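Slides due. Your pick:
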Amino acid sequence: MKPSELPAEAKHIYVLDTNVLMHDPTAIFRFAEHDIYLPMVVLEELDQHKKGLSEQARNVRQVSRFLDELLGGATKAQIDQGIVIQPAIASIDPQAKASGRLFFQTRNLIGKLPEGLPGHGADNSILTQTLALQNEAAAVRVTLVSKDINLRIKAAIVGVHAEDYYSDRTIEDVDLLHVGSHALPADFWEKNGAELRSGTENGRTWYELQGPQTEHWHCNEFVHEESPQGIEAIVRQVQDGKARLELVNDYRAERSGVWGITARNREQNFALNLLLDPEIELVTILGQAGTGKTLLALAAGLSQTLDSNRFTEIIMTRVTIPLGEDIGFLPGTEEEKMEPWMGALMDNLEVLTQGSGGGSNWGRAATSDLLRNRIKIRSLNFMRGRTFLNRYIIIDEAQNLTPKQMKALVTRVGPGTKLVCLGNIAQIDTPYLTETTCGITYVVNRFRGWPHSGHITLVRGERSRLADRAAEIL
């Protein structure tokens, strides 16, 4: 029986490419009851990438430690029979449920690639071993797992079943990623308002209701009616089939602006409600270029840092991945090295200080100096091990972070600190990351429904007519 003819529940052998382990060191524990096979060339490539301070080098070293702990003094005969993963997994990853075996390439399997496939690189060596393994283990489905699209294409051409690595995805399709708000149907109150209660608390109007549609709501999601006089509210609690709504503040009027910035559309108003809410510690904002993510986050941060003194300072950071060719070494301190990457910060500060200082150049310069003293630019490279107290942290371009990097940053947050993650999943520059596997998608899905986090997707561009049109058609 050919592997392609096996039933879906049949046991598999997964051949892992090097880039899978470099991307996720715990990948060997993510294949449930199935077996894993590591070609010798994969170990050689791991050895070549173990040196350095990059994220990939750290991952490679972690993989080596995992493999060393799994081997645990095993004999040659035990290695040939395959290392049982389950007994050794508890101390490494308690949440993993792997029960298969880990096989290393202990002998040279005889396989041959088609004559039309030139070269003898590592990819071709992995393909050769996978083909040979597929011929030897005809009763088992053999699958090559790789983040390299070209290798998967070559595998399909030579008759090897290949897949991307899916275990780091929290969502199958980016279209399923929740946007943080939804419109109420026209008959909502008729179907869900039978036991409606309302009141006022701390100057905020609330509604408590129960119905079939409220069961699918999550904390800190927004609901609204499409009519001009319709309500705009945030879901504060969902418990025992009952939902509690609270009307949001309206930041679209000039008198209620935040540091001179007013919301220009409904989603921006929702974003400001999240950014200014003292009970919400994590805010994620997605949106295409020009929707106002950075401007809103900065305005809310300055308001809470300089006006209400809730935070001691604003910390802004981002991944330093160039759009084009790298410009090379940058001299100076950490802040000076990061400044070229923070053009978005400078542009938005210019907008926020336009109306400051009474219109004089001196006044604007003084305001700009004050803001620079309260806004610190930090590199992600030096975040590990730190604890931030009473800070307002903005992570820009968070779509370029891996889930592991995002976890390292979120766990840096101490008491009194608010973390704001901004991103556009349509503009990912990090190799091997996609819309479904990037760090901000990971955080949006994992924190959904937590009472102290909120998410909103901005849909309308407000930068300029040209920028909006470009985002639509280019």
About this structure: The chain has three domains: 3-163, 174-247, 265-473.
